[in-house]
Write a structure and sequence with these properties.
Order of helices and strands: EEEEEEEEHEE
Structural class: mainly beta
Strand order of the largest sheet: 9-2-3-8-7-10
Largest sheet: 6 strands, mixed
Shape: globular
Helix content: under 10%
Distance between the termini: 29 Å
Strand content: 35-45%
Number of strands: 10
Amino acid sequence: MSANTAPIKYAQRKDSLYLTIALPDVKDEKITLTDSGLEFNGKSQDKDYSVSIEFFKAVDAEGSTYKVLPRSVQMFILKKDKEEEEFWPRLLKDKALEKNQVQIDWDRYVDEDEEGEGFDMSNLDGGMGFGDMG
């Protein structure tokens, strides 16, 4: 039996991404973040979910964190090029895949020219670092 595609929402700032896998009560999660992509496998409500994406540009896997919460899995992912002055035009390298797999997280969205501060990170207190995944 094949796994269902995990729904992804995201928002960004110049130096970072905030990714949410919108599944409740995730169990048996396996999350692998590399500098170029993300792989997620897990169970939610007795169904298997997975997603494998390639980012538009490189990210800093070592400095990024995630946390499994009751209603979702949330990730704070640092962009590799912190000096870049512009938002990415999209999350994924593959534009067609993005239309089917990714939604904008309007709760965390800001316009590029209105960016004043980073994300509210309170949900990630005590989260796991991807660098700790050894």
